[in-house]
Design brief:
single chain, 418 residues, alpha/beta, 17 helices, flat
């Protein structure tokens, strides 16, 4: 949940005609701003879920703009001639590119790549402390890639919109002869790790010659998937009518209609009325900055949990004496079990049905799987179903918990009797 300063909201709404103010407020309330904490945790869980069981060392790079010459991305690494006379060949060499570059040369504008570079650094340090025997390198140069025999190239980003920037970065890597050689021998694989992404953008990236594996935590909230079609049409008309950027970006770059931002900034795939400063328009996120937004805790509250159980058709469960005595983390875990039992298999479905954040889903699913309450395929086990039933029927089992750890530890008091 995110909160905007009242003054900013009032100033933004004042630009709309009276008959349009209600729709504008509804559109603004639909915007989903992801906190730094939620983003960082989700990317950590996403990485762990998809790469813990993979073998081979890893190189991670933040998505970044790449320089171009005549419209063609420059090579990601420098190439030098090596080998004996008459048999010299061009190989990757030199330093790794900086996470960002300056188009002018005298100033730097750091966008999401700055925060993502920090996340990569945390993942690299976490791998070292885990003593897993596997190396996770942050933006390594070719010499380190060879030294550690890297097998996975991962590009990390917050959001995939059109997919152009990622595709340009992939092409920049692909133009390096050594990289193509490593890939052709089957020594490396390319992966894209993102919090969210549009279907068109993901499909565009997947069409690249490097055949990257694209992994997203959830699809973005958009005007189309958040509102009913009649209301969505009203929102699109609102965005086009008040667009300060003439015919450009009325529905966001590429017409994406995205209603998703992050505490480190929002993408230009959001409609321009949210971020453009043209024609003296006062946006809610000036120049796509979100520093005025206060993001609240992503942990579900008691009230939100009760509402979710009601939405699942299980109000009796959250009203039981056994349930009310449980710590809130145990209630969140039971809510996840109830959501899985209702048929929600994917993370996005579980998040939508339960109201739990993506990072909560990852955290609780890890606990549930560790204690065999759900299967790897996302189904309840017999133990999981029995646990849910025991709370529902107020079994005599000692179900009161002192706490539920946020690690893989899971108190036996919540388990149903054997």
């Amino acid at each position: 949940m995110s909160l905007l300063p009242k003054a900013s909201k009032t100033q933004w709404l004042a630009q709309f005609d009276n008959q349009d103010k209600v729709a504008a407020e509804q559109l603004l309330s639909a915007v989903d701003i992801i906190s730094s904490d939620e983003f960082d945790k989700t990317m950590h869980y996403l990485f762990r879920q998809h790469f813990d069981k993979r073998t081979g060392n890893i190189a991670m790079y933040p998505e970044r703009e790449v320089k171009k010459h005549s419209g063609i991305p420059n090579r990601f690494f420098k190439e030098v001639k090596t080998g004996p006379r008459g048999k010299k060949k061009l190989t990757a060499s030199g330093a790794s590119p900086a996470p960002y570059h300056s188009n002018r040369g005298d100033t730097y504008e750091v966008g999401s790549e700055g925060h993502i570079a920090t996340v990569i650094g945390q993942l690299s340090r976490a791998a070292k402390s885990a003593n897993s025997g596997r190396v996770v390198l942050a933006s390594p140069a070719p010499s380190l890639i060879r030294k550690w025999k890297v097998r996975h190239f991962i590009i990390i980003t917050d959001f995939i919109g059109s997919g152009d920037r990622i595709t340009n970065m992939l092409q920049s890597m692909w133009r390096v002869r050594s990289v193509r050689s490593w890939w052709s021998y089957g020594w490396i694989q390319f992966h894209i790790l993102a919090y969210s992404g549009t279907k068109d953008g993901i499909d565009h990236i997947k069409s690249h010659a490097s055949k990257p594996n694209v992994i997203c935590a959830k699809p973005p909230r958009t005007i189309d998937n958040h509102f009913t079609q009649p209301d969505a049409q009203i929102m699109r008309l609102l965005c086009c009518t008040y667009n300060p950027d003439d015919n450009k970006y009325a529905l966001g770059y590429g017409g994406s209609q995205v209603l998703l931002g992050f505490s480190h900034g929002c993408p230009n795939n959001m409609p321009a009325i949210f971020w453009s400063t043209k024609k003296k328009w006062s946006p809610i996120f000036p120049s796509r900055t979100t520093f005025l937004v206060t993001t609240q805790s992503t942990k579900s509250t008691e009230q939100e949990i009760a509402s979710a159980f009601k939405g699942l058709g299980l109000p009796h469960l959250q009203n039981s004496d056994t349930f009310t005595r449980l710590p809130i983390q145990s209630k969140r875990l039971l809510l996840l079990l109830a959501t899985v039992n209702a048929g929600a298999r994917s993370i996005e479905m579980q998040s939508d049905r339960s109201g739990l954040s993506v990072s909560e889903i990852f955290e609780l699913a890890a606990i549930a799987k560790h204690h065999q309450l759900v299967t790897d395929q996302g189904h309840l086990t017999d133990t999981g179903a029995a646990t849910l039933a025991a709370v529902s029927r107020q079994s005599k089992a000692p179900l009161a918990l002192d706490r539920v750890s946020t690690t893989y530890y899971y108190p036996t008091q919540l388990r149903s009797p054997v």
